[in-house]
Amino acid sequence: NMRCSDVRAVLAAAILLAAIRGAEAQPESIRARFACNDGKSIDVTFVNGPKSSVALVLSDGRKLTLPQARSASGARYANANESFVFWNKGDTAFIEENGKTTYDGCSTKR
User: Fold this and answer.
1) Is residue 1 classed as helix, strand or coil in its secondary structure?
2) pLDDT tens track for 43-69
3) Rg over CA atoms, the chain
4) What is the mean pLDDT of residues 72-91?
């Protein structure tokens, strides 16, 4: 027969375990604003987790979310057909669309 204090201890352990698992499942996000050439800008939310991605808000009003893609250096995020690619290294970034750089000279330090 379980005593009331035993039941409380089991419930407390279950709640603690659920909280720990919930915390592990929450991806970390980091926000940054990049100022680019020609008065353009990119507001970025980096989501780091099991499936890292980036959410972009461009100064022309477009909003995109891209999964992280392979990169030899820096971080690269691309859509499925690679027609839109966001590159980031340190405090710099640029965007390529259909092989053409459309946002360049982007930096968080201006």
Assistant:
1) coil
2) 999 998 888 999 999 999 999 999 998
3) 21
4) 91
